[in-house]
Every structure is written in structure tokens, then in C-alpha cells.
Amino acid sequence: MPGILVVAEHRNGKYRRVSLEVLSKARELAGPLGGSLSAVVTGSGVADAAAELGAYGAETVYVADDAALGNGLAAPHVDVIAPLIEQQSPSAVLIGATAMGKDLAAALAVRLGVGLNADATDLSADGGALMASKPIFGGQNIVQCGWSGDLALALVRPNSFPAEQSGGSASVETLPVSISERAGAVAVTASKPTDEGVISLEEASIIVSGGRGLGAPEHFAVVEALAAELGAAVGASRAAVDAGWYPHPHQVGQTGKTVSPNLYIACGISGAIQHKVGMQTSDVIIAVNKDEEAPIFGFSDFGVVGDLFEVVPQLQQLVAERKAG
Ligand SMILES: Cc1cc2nc3c(=O)[nH]c(=O)nc-3n(C[C@H](O)[C@H](O)[C@H](O)COP(=O)(O)OP(=O)(O)OC[C@H]3O[C@@H](n4cnc5c(N)ncnc54)[C@H](O)[C@@H]3O)c2cc1C
Predict the structure, then answer these.
(1) Whether 149 and 20 share a structural domain
(2) Domain check: are 145 and 252 in the same one?
């Protein structure tokens, strides 16, 4: 190329939002890094969606559409994407940090023998070289990382950048699909969505979370009602998850998910460091807690000292009124 290649993930008939966010950011970086911007989409039934990526800045979209790429496993995708990288030699390959993206990036790093900067929350061009900002020590510090090799491979955290259309169009090139015996050795025999219709925590732009302050599992209904009004995902503290009040996939924090939404509303959560590291990069944090000394108020943008069972339903009511009016 040289240039930037974005691996776009397409699932359930649409692109993961993080892929479009990464592509939008890559468009901004392609000039300073001195190269073109391409995307690759691999999967089953993805061919028709390839050209869509032109609207987000991709000049060329490489597409591999094959049933063998539709089983949710990363290995077959590596067999298609690694040869493309070797052939095109981009200076950077950017992947959204979804479950699939993480799997794929790690496997690509091993296959290509390159370094992987995981968990990037920002990307910049420094004298023609890509730099990634990423949190370390549980989010206590942000470090700037570069790459010592020729290829910069990065996993980018969802909600780090806006997804913005540029109005461009892309040329589409079809890739050959040749799956190795090793990659084809694992088969998925059955799959079942766990949370059908539920907004994914990592990609949500708004999250409403509940903690031990809810007092009982059935009280999560208060959090869910506000979340539904806002079109938000529901999160939970570990205390709430450990108590069996909410499922673990919703846990935010050191031993749960790291999230970075535009708005994070914490209800009855004290703000322990292990919770903080999972949500502190949210753009706006609102805390509702009856204890004015709760640590969460120390890193919230807005705080309401009060009983969540009074405050949260009122907030929900206000949102409903605004939406109606
Ligand atoms: C190795 C390790 C990993 C961990 N990983 C995580 C993790 O991933 N995520 C995580 O969250 N925690 C994690 N923890 C646990 C963490 O230390 C805290 O124990 C936990 O976050 C506390 O959850 P909480 O804020 O819901 O509960 P609490 O700390 O008990 O806080 C409850 C809050 O609710 C408020 N409250 C009570 N009633 C009301 C009411 N009616 N209205 C308004 N406010 C009310 C109280 O004032 C209090 O501040 C981890 C701990 C360890 C040791």
C-alpha cells in the first residue's frame, strides 16, 4: 500500500459500530501517515455490505464471503486476512476490540510475528509513525506506545472515536478463500444468543449500572426501566453480580467489562477502584448515591445525593417527558 487497513466486523446483518469508529479515525490518520485507507470484511453473507464502508472513508474494500467464515471462530478469518496483509504490506492494521476482534488480533500477531498494542483508547500520527494511547495499571496511567517493527497492529476500544460518514465511495475487491486444515479443524455444532435484543455493554453509548445499593435482584427493574427509556445497556457492579442479582456478562470493572460510553449512570454504586477502572473513561459520569461521602462522587461529572428509588424513577419520567415533548 503502504497505508492503513481496518478489519471491519460484520455481524447479524450490520457492521459493529466500533469498526465504523475505527475507520473514521483511520481516515483522519491516513493523510499524516502517508498512505491509502483500506478495509477488509470477511464472513458469510457480507459481500453486499462491502461497498458501505466507502461512506466511512475506505478507498478499497477487500471482501471474502464464504460459509467457512461464518462460524464465529477467528482462525478461518486469519487464513484470509494474514495473506492480504503480507501481500499489501500496510503500515498499520486496526481492529475493534470486540470479543472476535481480540481473538483475531492475537492470532494475526502470532501468525505475522508482529507486536500488538491492545486496548488503545486513542491513536495519533507522530512524525509519520502511528502512536497508540492506552491505559495501564488498571487505568491509573495512560501510556503512549509505538511499534518497533514495520507493521503497527492495534486493537481499539469501542467508543473511543465517533463514527462519521465522509460521503466517499470504495472500490471492492474479492479475496480468495483458502482455509487451512488446522483452521478448519474446529467446528461449531450449535450456538444460541444469550441476550437477544439486549444492547451490548461494550458498544453502548449510554450505560445505566446498578450496585449493591439496589438491595435486591428485583430492584434492578428500576435500572432497567431507565435504561430502556434512554436506549441504554444495563451494567452492574461486582457486588451485585456476586450476589446473583445480575448476570456476569453485565459486570463493569477490573474483573468485568471495560466500557467507555458517552454517558455512564451509576446507581447505588460506591465507586471502588476495581469498578472505577472499568468505566472511568466514560465521557460523562452521573452518580446517584445516598452517601455524600461515596468515592464515586470523586470522579463523577454530576452527582445526586439521594435515594436511588426516588431519584431514578424521576429521572426516567423526565426523560420520557423530554422524548414526548
Ligand atoms: C480483585 C478484585 C476485583 C474486583 N473486580 C470488580 C469489578 O470488576 N467490578 C466491580 O464493580 N467491583 C469489583 N470488585 C469489588 C469492589 O472492590 C467493590 O466491592 C464493589 O465494586 C462494590 O460494589 P458496589 O459499589 O455495588 O457496593 P458497595 O460498595 O456496597 O456500595 C453500595 C453503594 O450504594 C449506596 N446506596 C445504598 N442504598 C442506596 C440507595 N437506596 N440509594 C442510593 N444509594 C444507595 C451506598 O451508599 C454505597 O455507596 C473487585 C474486587 C477485587 C478484590
Answers:
(1) yes
(2) no
